[in-house]
Structure formats: C-alpha cells, structure tokens
Amino acid sequence: MARLIQNRQRHILPGFGLNMGVMLFFVGLLIVLPLAALFMHTTNISWSKFVDIAQDERVQSALKLSFSSAIIAALINLFAGIMVAWVLVRYDFIGRRLFDSLIDFPFALPTAVAGMTLASLYDHNGWLGGLLKSVGVQVVQTQAGIVLALVFIGFPFVVRSVQPVLADMNQEIEQAAKSLGANGRQFFWRIVLPTILPAAFTGFSLALARGIGEYGSVIFIAGNIPYVSEIAPLLIAIRVDEESGYESAAVIAILMMIIAFILLLLGNVLQRWTRFYQK
Amino acid sequence: MINIERINKSFDHGRIRILEDVNFSVPKGQLVALLGPSGSGKTTLLRLIAGLENADSGTIELEGKPAQSKTIQQRQVGFVFQHYALFRHMNVFNNVAFGLRVKPWFKRPKRKIIQQKVQELLELVQINELAKRYPSQLSGGQRQRVALARALAIEPKILLLDEPFGALDANVRQELRIWLRKLHDRMQLTTLFVTHDQQEAMDLADRIILLQKGKLQQIDTPENIYEKPANLFVYQFLGSFNTIRLPVNNSSIKIGHHVFQTDRQIANADMGIFYIRPYHLRLLSQNQATTAHFYASVQGILFNGSIIKLQIQPIDYLSGIYEVTISPSDYHAHHVKNGAIYPFSIQELAFFITPQQPPITFKTSES
Amino acid sequence: MGRILLITVTVIFLLFLLIMPIAFIMIEAVGSGLQPYAQAIGNQATLHAILLTILVTAVTIVINIIIGLSGAWLISKFSFRGKAFLTTLIELPFSISPVVVGFLFILLFGYNGWFGKLLDNYGIQIAFAVPGIILVTVFVTFPFIIRELIPLMQEQGKDEEETALSLGARGWSIFWHITLPNIKWGLLYGVVLCLARAMGEFGAVSIISGNIQGETDTLTLHIKNLYDGYYYNEAFAVSSLLLIVALATLLIKSFLEWSFKPKTKYKTKTTLKKT
Ligand SMILES: Nc1ncnc2c1ncn2[C@@H]1O[C@H](COP(=O)(O)OP(=O)(O)O)[C@@H](O)[C@H]1O
Ligand SMILES: [Mg+2]
Fold this sequence. Notes:
Chain B is of the alpha+beta class.
C-alpha cells in the first residue's frame, strides 16, 4: 500500500502521465514511425544493391552538388551574417529597424515563391541576369544559382544567432578593453570574435542543415540538369515519382542523413571547442 | 505539530544522499529554526514536509495524522519559497486571493467574503495600500509580506518558511524578524523556518534544529545549543573560536606555570587540540597581573556595535593570533591601544575526545 | 571611414538580397494589369488552393500548440529518463530534408506502405490526400512552438506552480492561471513562426500530395503549376498573397519582440504604477 502511494506520487506537479502520453503519441506517430519505415525499407535492400545505387554517377554528382553548395552557402552566410549582425547592433542608420525586421524575410517567404523569384530575377532577361550576362556570368542553371538560393534561405540563421550575443556584450567590456589600450581592430579580433564565435557556429550549422535538404527554393533556379545542376533532394523526388525508384530514393535519403549527421557532429565539436571558456 | 521519523531522501536514483535518518518533532505553537550550512538539505527537508518532494523512507505526521498519503492540497500547510515565488502577472490582491479562489466550488467563499478576507490579511501584514501593485513594483520586504499573507489565506495550522529573510538587507531583516515572531504568536501557528544564519536562529526561535550534510546534529533551545553543543560541528558552527595545540598529561594541561584540569579521565596525548571561545579570554588590568596566564600585544581592534573584538598576539608561552571579545566599558576602563601589551587569563578550554562527542571543559584550579 | 564602408556594404547586400525580391514580386504580380491580377486570384482553382492552405495551416497550428504546450510542460517541469533523447527527437525535423519527409510518409501511407493498404480497406486515404499534407506539415513545423516554450518555461522554474499547488490549486487551474499567462507571448511568437512555415511548405507537400490539380494543390503547389505552365504573371499574382502574409508575420513578430522581449519589466512598471 505504502508503495502504491509512493509510486502514484512520484511526480509532485500534476500532468506527467497525460503529457507523457501526448508526447509519446505524437513523437511516435510523426517522427519515430516514419524513420523506422525508412530504415526497415533500407534493410530490405541487399548490400550490393545499396552499393550500386550509392556509386551511381548521377547519385554521386547530386550528393556532391548538394553538400558542396550547402557548405559554400553556409560559409558565405557565416561571414555576411557576422557583418550584418555587427552593423545592425553597433551602428545607427536610416532604415536600420526596417532592415532588422526584414532579416527574417527568407524564413517567412515560402521557399517556392523565393525560388521562383530568384530564378526570374537572375534569368537571362531578368533584372539582374541580364546585367550579369553582359559581364559573362551565368547564374541560372549553374551551381552559382544553387548557392545563391541557399544563401537566401539560410541567411537569417547566423544573423539571428549572433545578434543577441553582440547586443549582450555590454559597453563596459569595450570600455575596459579600450582603457587597457586596445584599438578598434584589436577589440574586434581579440574580444568580440571569440565571444560570438560559438553563436556564429550554431547559426552556421543550422544554415548548413537547412541548405543540405533544401528543395523549393533551389529547383527553380537550378535548371535541374542531371550531372550538372541536379540536387540530391530533387533526385529523391524524381525516384519517388517513378514508383519503382523507392529503393534508390531510400538509399539517397539514408546517405544524405548520414553525411549530414557527420557534418553536424563535426560542427558540434567545433562549437564546443570555441566554447572552451565556459567550462 | 510536525513529527518526522527516520526520513531518508536521495536524488539521482539513490546516488546522492541528501537526508539520512532524520528524526524530530516541532510541538504545537512553537517557532522552530532549521539551521545548517548551505547545501545541508534544509530546503529539501522543508519541501518534504510540504509534500513538494517524496521521501525514500520514513514517516511524516502533521497535526498527529500521517501526511504522506495526502496530496499537497490536502495537507494545508503554508509554504513560503526562498524567493517568494509571487505570481508575477497578478497584483498583490489577486496573489493573496488565489488560494481562496481555487477551492472547489462547494467550499469556495463568496466573492464578498474573499474580498473581505484578503483585506484583513493585507492589514495583518500591514500592506493594504499596496493591493493593486504588481510584484515587480514591490521592495523585498513588501514581497515577503505578500508571500506570507498569501500562504496564510488558506488558514494553515503549519507554516513553513525557506530562508524568509535571506534576500533582505540588514535593517529590514531585523524589523521583519520581530514582526514575524509577533505574527506567529498571534495566529497560534506552528512554524518551521529555514536559515543558515545562526544569529537569526538564536534571536527568533524557541528551538533550533541543527543539520549538517543531511544528518541531524542537535535539537535544543538556543541557550543549550550554545552552552552545551552536542559535538565538534555544533561548537564550530555556532560562533568563532581559537585553537591551541597542547600535550595532555594526567587529564591536565599546562600553559606557562598554570595548570588546567578536568575531572574526567583522559588518555595522555602528545598534541590535543583545545578550543577557546573569544569571550573566555579575559583582558585583565595591570594590577590583576598576578592572576594573568599570559601576556599579549594587541594587533587589531574591530568595533562591532555592542562588542569589541581584539586580535592579540601572545608574547610568552603561546604563539599565533587569537581573537578576544570585550565590552565597550572594559575597552574604555583599560585604555586599550593598538600595540600595547596586556595581561590575559583563560577561563576555560574545550576539548573533544572525538568529533562526535560533546566537549570536555578544562579549567584552572587557581581562583 | 571603416564604419561608413561597413554600413554601405551591408545596406547594398540587404537591398539585393531582401528588398529586391519583394519589389520584384509586387511588380510582376501586376505586370499585366490589375484586371488580370484580380482574375488570377479570384478564379476557382486559386480559391480552392487558398482554402486548402488555410485548412492545412490551421490544423497544423492547433496540433503544434497541443504538442508544444504538452511537451514543454513535460520537459521543463519533470525530470525523467530519456529526456535528453526526447529533446533530440523533437529537434530532428529541422535536419531532415522536406523531400525526405514526404517520402517517409509515402513509405508509411502510400499504396504499398505499412498502413496504406490497411487504411485503404476502411476507405481512409492519407497519402495523396489532405490528411497526408497535414501530417507532413506538422512534421516539418514540429519544433517551432515547442522550441520557443521550453527555454521560457525552464527559465521561469517551478516555484510559482508549486506555490499554487500548496495553496490548493489543481492541474488545469495551475496551468490556466499560473503557467499560461507567463508564456502567452512566447506561445504567440511560436505560432507566428509556425504559421509562416506551414503555409509555405513545398517540398514535403509536393511529394505526399501527388499534386492532384483542383484537389491537393496548396497555394505553393498551385503557384508552381502556374509557373510551369508559363502563366508567369498569374504565378506572381498568387505569390503576392503569400508575400503579404509573410510581411504581416514579420510585422507581428517585430511587434512582439519590441514590446515583450527584453523591456517587459520596465513597461509594466511605468504603465501600471498609475492605476
Ligand atoms: N532536485 C535535485 N536533484 C539533485 N540534487 C539536488 C536536488 N535538490 C537539491 N539537491 C542537492 O541536495 C543538496 C541539499 O540541497 P538543499 O536542500 O537545497 O540545501 P540547503 O537548502 O540546506 O542549502 C544540495 O547538495 C543540492 O545540490
Ligand atoms: Mg536552501
């Protein structure tokens, strides 16, 4: 009896059972079950078949394109994001608030609309495409276009990660540094950068993860030429459409997840390393 | 009345033991302090009594009835958190009224009555003019009064307070202590309050429960706990002290020519550690020098209101720096000056055969 | 000098990256006049897509509010085994490609899927139908609300809830009177984020819906169909609707941030003291 009472009261605040039930149901139905389906589906594929699909040239070039584009875009966003966050936090200029609110625009705009817009803007007879063409640069149907789309949709991550950290760095730190004789450049490299780096890497990883799997914004501008500008998610979509291509789709999906997982793990290690002073 | 028997509590699936076999009872109507260094398990013990935590084993009785089968709501104890936990989105009135409004509908008082009752409570804690303020607009002392009024709204017989004065500054603290004592007496409550400040416990409590590392050390009146400490920890926790290392022979020790004895039989030792309270060192006038045990030069003088602390350095027999407390009148009568040398006597020394036992007192046989 | 250069570079960058697409959508939308614009939005197919998108978004938000509140309460108020694992699972949807999400649900509910046949026997269709669209949208937006709420609730601790408990309050009443008022702005913020993403989801929906015109095409799919069919201005006309919603969510979001995030305390202090 005493035991029963103890068990019943293991958690003092109410709602443990109910909420655990709700969470198990939704996480089970929406996350665990679908992933289980994918892994079960993959285990039905023989190893040699798996390797065949993985080594297929079209698959390889799609994976390479997806990952390299995502990494390049995330790197661009890392630098641009730090710059934009710095300018927004430190300087006051006309339109600062407007720009600040608009930073999240790429998150709010549906990716398909973004993709369509970018494709039209940079098309040969679009506003910018024409301009670029006259200097011999082509964006549409090349990797440059894919990177451009990924820069657009991943842009807010780094800015939004770094901004609060920068805003939190109070004036006293800057004044202390200056009183010790640091000039502006030294202050930035020795004080600011080490402080914001962990947050910047968080933003970088998020942008990277988003970029690897991105579909809507890319397919319009990429032109989707196999072996040239066909990204991995699109290849999955094509294989799923073919009905008989489920196995191939599953293998590509698994490969994407594994590589993304490794990359994010590396990112985590990097991030922990930049946070050394917090331990 | 609160009755605790053999309470054990651990966190992290038994890996960290927080409370070990704790027994005590708080008689009806008493105001009792739960004293101990921080991390000793005071808050955990209080939360167990309130029902915010479950014990691994042991029993808790409130007002003579077993409490563990009751839910928190049924226990009806007033609980005040260390940082008061006021509902920040409610004004003072609504905070205090909360406990009345959440009663089941058949027990809930009418709106008029709630209004009236809250008014009374606010008057009781002397903050009726603050009824419309929000917690963020109150001072620490005012917040504490709101928290108390809120806890009292459900008419608890038992009041549990976690470090009620911890977040307040010194003079507010003093004032609220007196006020809390009066409130407790007037409402005929049984109150258990947590503190890590021994002075606060001494000033306020009828009895003190002393806890260390989850183990009960002593339960006693403030006077007894000070005069008759149960063990070395209690002795050390309850005030400052000096230590001297001396050889023990035939249940006696020597400082210079002077012999200090005890009537207990003690094994000889090369080096025993002896404890002296600062007020057991007496500053003598030059004409009392014949009874002096040693001479020392004054190295520092600290004025601390009603008492004065001297740092002294003996020039014969003993070495090191010692702390002495004297009264302001002695201070003036002896014209104490930094650097000057005065005779001192030792009234008594305490010796612990083992840290777990009460001390043995050594006194000089000379008068 | 360096400062002016930095500001200039940033402003130009942002103009190209953010402002230009906004202007472009608006101009292209009315590129062939207001009459065609109205027609593009008012026709049967577009209206159907709008209604479907509203339905999917609304259901998604409701489900995510339930998940968000329930999960945040569970994770911030209790300690239990597997909590870290659960937290990881919640974050997972962020790192899975929307296309893969669509594929996962086809594996489950497609004609040859785990449950597809079974449910088909009862006349229930999930893949290539509205329920499937809702499921993938919920998956994709799963973390938004809960991620806003968990840190908020953790920071606020359990003291207030435990006090309410000791004063005699019960579960729902504690949640309703103590917890919810403290998190309502965070919840609204999460809902806004969730809304923006839910109405604009494309990759996952395009896979699971089968893109059956006039039935399972949400706004974004409809836009793609128009674009692919060379109905260029119509595509941008419909896009302008989504652009307006996007800008509106940004406005609400900025408003929430400016009024309720760091300045909360000072605000209430000055305005309430007078009452
Ligand atoms: N929920 C918990 N989980 C794990 N350890 C805890 C928990 N609550 C308290 N402790 C530990 O129990 C010990 C006693 O805590 P507490 O009762 O708060 O001490 P006190 O109030 O005397 O300062 C501390 O070492 C603390 O770290
Ligand atoms: Mg404590």
